[in-house]
């Protein structure tokens, strides 16, 4: 037999080819079944091609065709006529029938066993969105009970079998609607609700049967059945244990003990009606293990007994389970009484000690208990599975639901939507999570429909995976496409679970009282004062400004601020931190990423609070570049950028520049950005002080290099020069030369030039002077970006000497006039910008000057004389020498002059001493036994502490320069701020001060002994 290929076909297609194209795997059997005599009376020859096409749309065409032949063979009388109608003119009914037969062997067997169910197939009424009361009445009527009776009691003979038949009839209607939906994911919520309502109706019918079994005694016990889990949340699966809790109260004329006995008999009767063996297949197990004390506790309790247990003994997970509790059958008044006393406990449970930690640990235990062989196939319990979504949603509900009733739904997707609407979850995250959850649930439904068995495991066999893919609408993608989407969904769910479920905000919010979490004025003011805010009333005004209103922005800040006000308190100035946060939030609060980042990141909100309450320098930097808040989410974004990367960025700026002033301003912006990055990293202990100093030096080097190139181009344009008459070099000196620059450091430099071939010396000098002057002016100008003061006072002859010299001039000067202090200054000379060849020759020129073959005793005395003069003359008047971190006793100058004197004396013989780094030279002195390890450690500790204080003063005050920048503050507030930056808690400020003074005293003793040989 050859079937037409369909409309528009130019040639006939063989039956086998058509069947293969439709998705049949056993083509030979399919051809045999199509010719089966049972189909003859119900299907005309001309309809077989249409039937094959229709079968091609179902999950398993082979299964559907076999079941169809069996059904046609079993149908008689009216049922046979129904088959004819379904396969003939009633194409919608045919789609419904074939969809069921191709997706569920169990429902197909039901239809074969009970062909009268075909009237359900012919009925176009949907199986979902049916009122729960109607479904309840349907099943109660099936067992002969009056749905309107206060206490329905079954009267029909064979009531249990009747209940099960009515249940399967309704289940068939739900499955047909589900399997023929245009979008199964969109219909999922209706399907879950319909299945939960059907289960509730079945429990009501089972209770009516149980009451009939205990006769009149059943009326003396007022029993209610609470649905738990997915039944309680109205999101049930096709096949699942139905979790319940039984609550009983004595009726009129019955005492409590008798009511408990009768209640236990009723509960047992419900279990038998639903799951005992019988003529009709059982529905599902009724599981009461979520009751107090679990399987070890009594199966029924009174309301008072439940309350006593939950108040005294319940574990964290039990309150999480109660979130979905809902009356599904029995006495509604008892159920309401239970709800009224137990429901408030659910939303107070988060206040229990370690509630969030316990919830997180429970999820990990569930995950760890998944057998290794099933881990990659588990839709429910494994990583990225349904439980990841459900636990995430439930934990967010329990933490925030005590102050926000709007998010208390027991339905996962409804709760997720509410969490998004109220700002607890980003809308796009909620949408992605909802889509993933729907997909996983639809997979679960299709797996369970196949044999109406409880399962959550993806199949292994290729054919089974192919069948599942077709069942969820992925006909063309096949098994591999299904697996790929499953893996992608798992990854997505897991990432969102880890982001939301382990939010650092959650345990912090859980520890707050309801008043504190809700920022109620009285609670908030008392808490602000207790934390250490100096102006609680002012802080409260900031809180009110940030959280008032119904905007999403205000809603998210209502989540953040109850926790962040404590985090601000970890800084030295929480008032300033909160004010800075308000300012920043008013600027950034309407952006799509700012508040989302703070709410969802594992660290950004805490880090931002700490920085704003600790450093005015960083606060000002974030105000200038608010987008830098993004760095706080990842350590990698805070790590100092390599010099080569910065140089490439500056070069790109220079290459695109059409305006020299704007280009230098952009280079200065890069420096400001990197100083903010480094400061943040150091304050958050991601970068240590040495790494931070190197990073500051690197960006300063790059800034000088970029400014030099831009200045040269500008000067050539102004002078209308095609070629530069001189090569230029910038040599870093001082702390910059040692790669030890701080946040407030000037750039100490010397300018070197060399005439190009054929250029006149005077022209070269004029050109070099113009470039150097322009560079200093462009970097030091006050403007939109912080200036970098370029200080050339360490050049030969100091301020009295020319700003720029040629290399030959330097050679002549150092050969004839160099003083010992200039040799000492050259110890830190390091070329940082300009011509590479000129840099090599300059280093070769100055090395003999700074590393002399021997240092005369007169020179040693001169260095000591100059040092003593610096101590006596340059120390600001009225400044306590013990508190000046640079010039004071045991301060930076003491350590550096000591190290430099030893370098001048020994670097000629010890090459390792030929370094511009103070700490590097100190290490080399120790290795060469020129300084004892103990002395070196004392000097190192003092130098690091003094350098840290100098930087901390800039970070704390936000001010660069000035005499106060080198003095340990006397103000207790400022001292506490500096101490906090250096890692001392506020309450240990005095200890910090004592540590500094002790460190400097010890360092001065070493200096007296080593430098002064005293």
UniProtKB/TrEMBL annotation:
GO terms for cellular component: cytosol. Its cofactor is Mg(2+). Residues 1-505 are annotated as: Adenylyl removase. It comes from Flavimobilis marinus. The lineage of its organism: Bacteria, Bacillati, Actinomycetota, Actinomycetes, Micrococcales. It holds the Pfam family GlnE. This is Bifunctional glutamine synthetase adenylyltransferase/adenylyl-removing enzyme. GO terms for molecular function: [glutamate-ammonia-ligase] adenylyltransferase activity; [glutamine synthetase]-adenylyl-L-tyrosine phosphorylase activity; ATP binding; ligase activity; magnesium ion binding. Belongs to the GlnE family. GO terms for biological process: regulation of glutamine family amino acid metabolic process. It catalyses: [glutamine synthetase]-L-tyrosine + ATP = [glutamine synthetase]-O(4)-(5'-adenylyl)-L-tyrosine + diphosphate; [glutamine synthetase]-O(4)-(5'-adenylyl)-L-tyrosine + phosphate = [glutamine synthetase]-L-tyrosine + ADP. Residues 361-501, 867-1011 form the PII-uridylyltransferase/Glutamine-synthetase adenylyltransferase domain.
């Amino acid at each position: 037999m050859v079937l037409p290929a369909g409309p528009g076909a130019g040639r006939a297609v063989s039956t086998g080819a058509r069947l293969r194209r439709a998705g049949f795997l056993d083509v030979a059997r399919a051809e045999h079944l199509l010719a089966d005599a049972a189909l003859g009376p119900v299907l005309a020859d001309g309809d077989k091609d249409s039937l094959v096409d229709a079968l091609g749309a179902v999950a398993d065409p082979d299964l559907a065709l076999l079941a169809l032949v069996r059904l046609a063979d079993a149908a008689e009388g009216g049922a046979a006529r129904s088959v004819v109608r379904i396969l003939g003119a009633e194409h919608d009914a045919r789609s419904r029938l074939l969809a069921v037969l191709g997706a569920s062997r169990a429902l197909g067997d039901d239809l074969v066993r009970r062909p009268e169910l075909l009237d359900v197939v012919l009925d176009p009424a949907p199986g979902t969105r049916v009122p729960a009361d109607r479904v309840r009445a349907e099943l109660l009527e099936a067992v002969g009970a009056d749905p309107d009776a206060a206490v329905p009691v079954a009267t029909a003979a064979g009531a249990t079998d009747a209940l099960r038949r009515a249940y399967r009839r309704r289940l068939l209607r739900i499955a047909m609607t589900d399997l023929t939906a245009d979008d199964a994911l969109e219909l999922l919520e209706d399907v879950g609700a319909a299945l939960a309502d059907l289960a509730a109706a079945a429990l009501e019918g089972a209770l009516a049967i149980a009451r009939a079994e205990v006769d009149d005694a059943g009326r003396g016990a007022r029993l209610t059945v609470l649905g738990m889990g997915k039944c309680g949340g109205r999101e049930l699966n096709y096949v699942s244990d139905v979790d319940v809790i039984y609550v009983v109260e004595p009726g009129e004329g019955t005492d409590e003990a008798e009511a408990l006995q009768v209640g236990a008999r009723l509960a047992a009767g419900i279990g038998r009606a639903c799951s005992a063996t019988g003529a009709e297949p059982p529905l599902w197990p009724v599981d009461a293990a979520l009751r107090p004390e679990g399987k070890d506790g009594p199966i029924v309790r009174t309301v008072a007994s439940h309350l006593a247990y939950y108040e005294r003994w319940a574990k964290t997970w039990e309150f999480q389970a109660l979130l979905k509790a809902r009356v599904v059958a029995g006495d509604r008044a008892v159920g309401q009484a239970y709800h009224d006393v137990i429901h408030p406990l659910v939303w107070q449970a988060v206040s229990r000690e370690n509630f969030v930690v316990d919830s997180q640990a429970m999820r990990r235990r569930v995950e760890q208990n998944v057998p290794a062989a099933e881990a990659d196939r588990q839709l429910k319990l494994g990583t990225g599975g349904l439980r990841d979504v459900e636990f995430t949603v439930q934990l967010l509900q329990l933490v925030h639901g005590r102050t926000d009733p709007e998010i208390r739904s027991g339905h996962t997707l409804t709760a997720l939507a509410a969490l998004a609407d109220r700002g607890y979850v980003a809308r796009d995250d909620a949408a992605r999570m909802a889509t993933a959850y729907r997909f996983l649930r639809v997979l679960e439904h299709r797996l369970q429909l196949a044999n109406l068995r409880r399962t959550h495991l993806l199949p292994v066999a290729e054919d089974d995976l192919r069948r599942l893919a077709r069942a969820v609408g992925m006909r063309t993608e096949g098994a591999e496409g299904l697996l790929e989407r499953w893996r992608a969904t798992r990854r997505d769910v897991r990432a969102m679970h880890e982001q939301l479920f382990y939010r650092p905000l959650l345990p912090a919010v859980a520890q707050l009282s309801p008043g504190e979490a809700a920022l109620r004025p009285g609670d908030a003011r008392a808490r602000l004062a207790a934390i250490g805010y100096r102006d609680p009333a002012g802080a409260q005004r900031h809180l009110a400004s940030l959280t008032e209103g119904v905007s999403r922005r205000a809603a998210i800040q209502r989540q953040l601020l109850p926790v962040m006000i404590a985090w601000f308190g970890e800084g030295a100035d929480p008032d300033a931190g909160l004010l800075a946060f308000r300012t920043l939030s008013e600027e950034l609060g309407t952006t799509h990423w700012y508040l989302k980042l703070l709410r969802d990141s594992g660290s950004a909100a805490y880090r931002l609070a700490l920085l704003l309450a600790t450093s005015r320098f960083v606060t000002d930097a974030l105000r200038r570049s608010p987008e830098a808040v993004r760095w706080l989410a990842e350590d990698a974004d805070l790590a100092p950028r390599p010099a080569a990367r910065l140089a490439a960025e500056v070069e790109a700026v220079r290459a695109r520049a059409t305006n020299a002033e704007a280009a230098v301003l952009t280079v200065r912006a890069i420096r400001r950005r990197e100083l903010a990055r480094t400061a943040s990293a150091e304050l958050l202990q991601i970068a240590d002080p040495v790494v931070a100093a190197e990073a500051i030096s690197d960006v300063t080097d790059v800034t000088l290099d970029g400014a030099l190139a831009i200045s040269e181009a500008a000067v050539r344009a102004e002078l209308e020069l095609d070629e530069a008459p001189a090569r230029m070099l910038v040599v870093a000196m001082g702390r910059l030369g040692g790669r030890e620059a701080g946040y407030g450091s000037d750039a100490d430099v010397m300018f070197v030039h060399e005439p190009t071939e054929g250029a006149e010396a005077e022209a070269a000098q004029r050109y070099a002077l113009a470039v150097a002057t322009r560079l200093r002016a462009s970097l030091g100008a006050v403007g939109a970006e912080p200036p970098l003061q370029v200080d050339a006072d360490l050049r030969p002859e100091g301020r009295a000497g020319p700003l720029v010299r040629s290399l030959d001039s330097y050679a002549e000067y150092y050969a004839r006039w160099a003083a010992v202090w200039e040799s000492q200054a050259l110890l830190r000379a390091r070329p940082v910008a300009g011509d590479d060849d000129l840099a090599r020759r300059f280093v070769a020129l100055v090395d003999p000057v700074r590393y002399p073959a021997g240092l005369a005793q007169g020179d040693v005395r001169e260095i000591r004389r100059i040092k003593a003069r610096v101590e006596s003359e340059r120390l600001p008047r009225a400044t306590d020498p013990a508190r000046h971190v640079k010039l004071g006793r045991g301060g930076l100058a003491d350590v550096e002059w000591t190290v430099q004197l030893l370098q001048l004396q020994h670097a000629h013989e010890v090459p390792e001493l030929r370094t511009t780094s103070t700490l590097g030279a100190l290490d080399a002195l120790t290795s060469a036994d020129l300084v004892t390890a103990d002395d070196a450690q004392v000097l190192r500790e003092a130098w690091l502490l003094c350098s840290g204080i100098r930087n901390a003063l800039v970070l704390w005050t936000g001010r660069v320069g000035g005499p106060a920048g080198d003095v340990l503050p006397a103000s207790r507030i400022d001292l506490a701020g500096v101490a906090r930056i250096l890692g001392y808690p506020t309450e240990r400020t005095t200890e910090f001060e004592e540590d500094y003074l002790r460190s400097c005293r010890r360092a001065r003793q070493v200096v007296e002994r080593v430098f002064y040989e005293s």
